[in-house]
Amino acid sequence: MTAGSDAVQDLLPLVFAAPNEALTKAESVLRRRPEPLHASVAHQVIGIWQRDFGDLRLALRHLRRARNWAARAGSADREADVLATLGVALVHSGRTRQGLDALSQGVRRGTGHTRARVLFRRAYCWWVLGHHKEALEDVRRAVPVLRQAGDVIWTARSLTLRATVHLALGAVERAEADFASAEDLWAVTDQEHDKADAVESRGLAAFRSGDVPAALRLLDEAEERYAKLATPTFMLSIRRCEVLMAAGLATEALAEADTAIAELDLIGGQSTRKAELLLAAARAARQADEPATATARAGLAVRLFAGQRRTWWEAHARLVLIGARHAAGKGSRRLVADAAAVAQRLTGLGAPAAPEAYLLAGRIALDLGRAADAEPYLAVAARSRRSGPPLARMTGWAAQALRARAAGSTRGVLEACRRGLDVLDDHRMTLGASELRARATAQGAELAALAQQAALRSGGPRRLLMWSERWRATVLSAPPTRPPADPELLSHMTAYREIAARAEETRMDGRPVPALEREQRRLERAIRSRTLHMRGEAHGDDTRFDVGRLLGQLGDGVRLVELAVVDGRVQVLLCGQGRVRRFEAGLLAAAETEAEHVQAGLRRLAHPGAQARLPLVEAAGRRLEELLLGPAAAHLGDGPVVIVPPGRLHRVPWALLPSLRERVVSVSPSASSWLRARETRPPWGGRKVLVRGPGLATGGAEVTRLAARYSGATVLEHRDASVPRVLAELDGAGLAHIAAHGTFRTDGPMFSSLRMADGPLIVHDFERLGRSPYRIILSCCDTARFATVGADELLGLVTALLPLGTAGVVACSAPVNDEAVVPLMLALHEGLAAGLPLPEALRDARAAMPDDALHRATGWAFTAFGAA
């Protein structure tokens, strides 16, 4: 480049249009021993690049040189501009007083247009420090001057900053107006980094207005823009953490924050950003129920913010620290006082988090038995229930519920919980992805627990049943938003199948597959990202659960057993014969442990020669029955039984329990789900589809024999058993039988799969069905395994099918012997051909098996879900 004055001055806007190009050109200018003015600009450009994308120590070194060269050049405005940049860098390095002094010098030295730019940067530092009133004042003084000068870039920056300050204060509408004005200005510039920052800021605004899918989409778009510029941005990670936590993805938020901290430390980046990332990590760890990690991260953040004189941020970090200590079981009058002091500080700062702090102070006081002390704190927190974003209103309703409980008002508790959960339902239905809907339920776990505790104390089993249903399997209350016909998403899914199939073949050949696995993980991230962007279209089921309707459908012969967990103990709600009875059983934790022992036993019994373990498994089944059913086992009658377990008991093989072993048993995620399945009508024509996937030990032997039984059935095998063809045939079928290897993904339940000829058929694929088969039989391992997420939700193959029109599923919760499965499946279809529903046909199929350990364990591993 030439060393002309205009060309060198153009490097300053270039650093936020094409940062790496600006860095290269600035270094080139310095190699030619430029005049003082040009040297000042070049050093400033390098300093800005290092400040925002590299080593802060190098940034300070270059900016001090830029200041010195500006002084030699005798330009007051040049010196003022460099002082402003230096001041920002000093603040980001934690030297707050020095930074503000440099900025004040810049304001005094600069004139007119230059002074307005300095004011903008001081406003930015006020925002970083949490001094929002001062930030707004400086922007107010800067914007008119910048507009009058026709400075589009700096006007847009100022409007973006003002919008961001408004968001921090909870003024979402003002922020959106400023973001819109700034976006119009950015459209006529080539400031690509600034444009990416504007997209990121719009993502934050979308989040603050309650639109989580839009926030995720905009943050992903910003990340793509930054990636093209090869410029890291840690503010994006901080904002993404906030959105991920609101979506119930706390573990991912913690990983994102920790990764960003490591990268920041590696390059010697801004200490202000490190403190904010530590705070994000602490919040995520607290939400992920890791109080020790939250305490450590929050404690370090408090120290950094205090050293940086960032009162706003320090107060927020102290709030997380106190919450983590409380979660770890620590409670004292001193902790109450600390929480109250933070609440008052946040109120004085105008922070939207103040109600959360008052709620924490009240909750700690209640735990100490000091209801009188808690009341004023809870009363203040409860004010937020009337307005604001959904999570803030839920904070208010939680406070109101705690007030009512302390006052001994069961009615008040239940009303507050109902209103709070209604807010959550409205928020949840804005989410299109079933995964996000499921995880978002965690936000209402406290309200649900308070309601169930109140219902139990009131003594009415019907009331407890209603509240158990209010909170159980809410994600299944409406079909998920169907993934859009997005060419990029479809391309990712096709590529994913191809890569996964190649990786599987390579593993079977005994060769390592690191490159294929990396590409598979990349495609999984891309698919998941596109799916999480979906906005909810379906409305929840407005029909409230009706106990009378349930009892009417059950009649005198069928019993429905709903297991509610209150304070860690299983409460058995036995429904039938026109009434609901309650029995108390064992501890949930003990039942979970016993269920894992049973699963281990079934895995061993899947192999010949394990006959000696059968008595141990049967004994574990007896213990499970005592823990899960208790005295209710003696009151089940002689007819069919429907089990409605909590999510954490989804792996229990119910047919193993002695009182259920010879009985018709089905499982449902909720009583409401069972009612919908019972009332679902089969499709006209009753098409039958038989699918045989590759690599089965028996070659999918039952499919060949079933094809002979069902003349006219569609049989998909070999190359015909491809994912697109299988999905096309499954859509709206009356009965489907799939014999294929199943894989459950604990690390990504939505990628749990059935192996087809061209690769995995995943949960995301099933969600593309217009209507899933009325009945479906999955004769493969692990198809009835789920991930428990949110409050009490399940993600897996079966739960993907139930909201889409499937009324009955037979699936397996454990590894099974492929050869022993064949006779069980043939016997099951004999029952279906005789007109039996799935649960009864499965019961009879078990009874028809040889009475040896292998075949008995195979029968126990399969469960009938639904009511068809």
TrEMBL record:
Gene3D superfamilies, per this entry? Tetratricopeptide repeat domain
Name of the protein in its database record = CHAT domain-containing protein
Superkingdom of this protein's organism: Bacteria
InterPro entries assigned to the protein according to its UniProt record, in alphabetical order: CHAT_dom, TPR-like_helical_dom_sf, TPR_rpt
State the Pfam families in the record: CHAT
List the transmembrane segments. none
User: Which residue range or ranges hold the CHAT domain?
Assistant: 619-866
